[in-house]
Structure formats: C-alpha cells, structure tokens
Amino acid sequence: MEKTLIDYFISLVKIDSESRQEKDLALKLKADLEELGATVKFDNANEKTGGNIGNLIASFPGNANSEPLLLCAHMDTVVPGKGIKPVISDGVIKTDGTTILGADDKSGIAQIIWGIKELLDNNEHLPPIEILFTISEEIGLLGAKNCDYSLLTAKQGYAFDSHEVGSIMNGAPSQNNINITVHGKKAHAGVEPEKGLNAINIAAEAIVKSPLGRIDPETTSNLGIISGGAATNIVPDLVEIKGEARSHNEETLKKVTTEICESFRKTTTQYSINGYQASAECHVNKSYSTFFVDNNEPLVTIARQTSQNLKLPDVVHRGGGGSDANILNQHGIKTVVIGTGMENVHTLQEFISISSLENGALWVKELLRLYC
Q: Which of 73, 138, 289, 311 lies in the 20 to 30 Å Cα band around 326?
C-alpha cells in the first residue's frame, strides 16, 4: 500500500471506475484489504446490473468483544470520470478541470481503509468489522439493491457518502420515479393544424397544474426531462416526461405523486377532435424507501461523541437525497450517513481539502475505538 493517506487517495482516484466499470478499482481494494488481514469476497450483483464486477464484501474478525459493525462506501463515480488527473494546490486536491475528481466516494473508501490500517499498525483493539464497497450507486443504488445480503451479518453501520466531516445524516426520503407519456394527434402544422392535438401544448398545461418544487419541509417534486415532436411542420402527437417526487412522509409522497399523474390525466380529457381523444399514461416506480434513525440510538450517539472528541462539527440532520443507506435500512441493517469532506461533487470543480481527508480517517479511527 501507499505510505500516506494522501498518496493512497490519489492512487484511488487515478483508477477509472465509472458506473458498471469498477473492476480495476475493486481488485486493488481487494489486495489492499487482504494485506491488512481481511477476508474479501465479491457477490454476483454485476450479473443483474450489467457491470464488470460485483460488490466487494470484506471482514475483519477484530479482537474486541462487540457486535460486527458495517462500514460502507461506493466504488463507482459519475461521468466524466476517466483519465482523472489530480492536482494538489493550496491544501486542496482537485482535478485539471477536464473530469470529476471522484472524492465521491473514494474519499470514503480511503478514510475507511486508512483508519483501519492505522489502528492495526498501532496494535489497537479492533471490533469485528464488515466492509461493503458497492457498485453502480450513482445510477440508482443498483449495487446495494442487488447485494447478496447473506454475506453480511452486521445489523448496524455507517455509510460514508456525504459532505462535511463530522456530520451525521440520520434520515433520508423515499423517492418515486415518475414516467409520463402524453398522446396527441398528428397533423400538418402549416396546412391543417386544426386537425391535430398538440401533445407538447397539452403536456405544458398539465405541468403548470402539477405540484412541483418544495411542497413542504419534507417533500419535493420535479419534472426534469421532456422530449417529443418530430419536426416543426408536424403537430406533435407524443411527449415523454420524466420526473420524481421525494418525501420523508410516505402518505405525502403518495399524495403528491397521485396529484401529478392526475393533472395529466384530467388535462388530456379536455382535448379531443373528430372522435380522437388525447390521453396520458403515468408509470410510477419506487426507487428507494425513507429511513430515520432516532438521535438517541447508539448508532447516532457514538457518531456524535466521535465528532465531539475530535472537535469536529456535531451536526445531525435529515437529508434530501438517497444513498446506499436507504437500501441497507430496508434490509435490516440500521445505517446512518457520514460526511467525508467531498465538495462540488458531480462537477468538474469537485475537490476535497487535505485536512478534511485526514480528519475523515481520524474520524474512522475514533469511531472504532469508541465502538469497542
């Protein structure tokens, strides 16, 4: 392994690992973990996701009398994530501006492995640890959704996949994906437009009537992709819209999703011509379910004490996005999300400060000490 945490992180981000292409990174992590004494396996999640390797699952037996603890991060990055050239400047690690950095989520991976390494190097006690490094998180949490959970025994854990080091995200919303198709009627736009039903116009009216944006403190919705039409001289007969709704409250999520779909259905009933009726189809798919871990749960109190001991921000909050933690909680592994220091993720301006990277590794060490 590399001699410093900074060198180790740099080595990870230089390995291409866009979603479904995590194999090279996974094999390095396997070798590194085995060097530290872990047992490493891969499941077959990639057979369901179309990737080139499965989730990495590792275990350390530990030498402390405690229940196994799960530490999780994801191996994939968003695009453009090939040929990353990390640059160190003024205490910050960034890229040359042509790619993302991959601190999301290689900062979490590096901090987990380096924290464990330093405890082992110092002959300190180590609790039984299970590590889950997932694939294809960035394209729908696919690795976690298709994980072989029979290979895990831990009932609680931490997912390292957020921003400020020391912050603890103890809740996240459910998300519904919403796909809508609006059917109108074709006609020549310059010769006889009155014989057509403009699907774009109908869809626009329905969108205006839909509940969108910040619905309440727990709920958001958005229609983010719209496509349709064939030419400027053809009244469009088909429009496809993709969107989402998120909420920490399942009933509110259901209500908002229904209102969006009903807006399209009701709007289309107002448009017909020569016996042809406009129509709309709405398909809803649950992407992931909400979770919440109470502030008084040991999982949260230990994390807070860890941050306090290191004089890091002791912040507990509910987030607005999904992560592997949503899926882990669904599978009975109580999990909260921990910050790693990543900033401006999913952009060419992504960066992480060296101090945040180092504090994240210290956070892992202190957490494991307290957990013992």
A: 311
CA distance 240 to 104: 31
CA distances to 172, 238, 252 from 293, rounded to whole Å, are: 10, 44, 20
Pairing label, strands 92-95, 86-89: antiparallel
Whether 137 sits among the annotated catalytic residues: the reply is: yes
Model confidence pLDDT, tens digit, residues 36-58: 999 999 999 999 999 999 999 99
Name the residue type at position 142. L
Is 76 catalytic? The answer is: yes
Given this structure, which CATH class describes domain 5-172+290-371? alpha beta
Strands 213-216, 219-228: pairing is antiparallel
Amino acid in position 211: P
Catalytic residue among 18, 32, 76, 237: 76
Neighbours of 124 (CB within 10 A): 14
**Which fold, 174-288?**
Alpha-Beta Plaits (3.30.70)
What's the pTM?
A: 0.94
Please report how the helices 5-13 and 23-35 are oriented relative to each other, as an axis angle in degrees rounded to 10: 150
Among candidate residues 137, 244, 324, 350, the one labeled active-site is: 137
Domain-by-domain residue ranges, the chain?
A: 5-172+290-371, 174-288
Query: Where residue 64 falls among pLDDT bands split at 50, 70, 90?
Result: confident
Helix (H, G, I), strand (E, B) or coil at 317: strand
Q: Report which residue type is found at 286.
A: K
**Kind of pairing between the strands at 69-74 and 129-134:** parallel
Query: Residues of 3-39 as b/e, b for ≥16 C-beta within 10 angstroms?
Result: eebbebbbbbbebbbbbbbbbebbeebbebbeeeebe
Gap between the Cα atoms of 97 and 107, Å rounded = 18
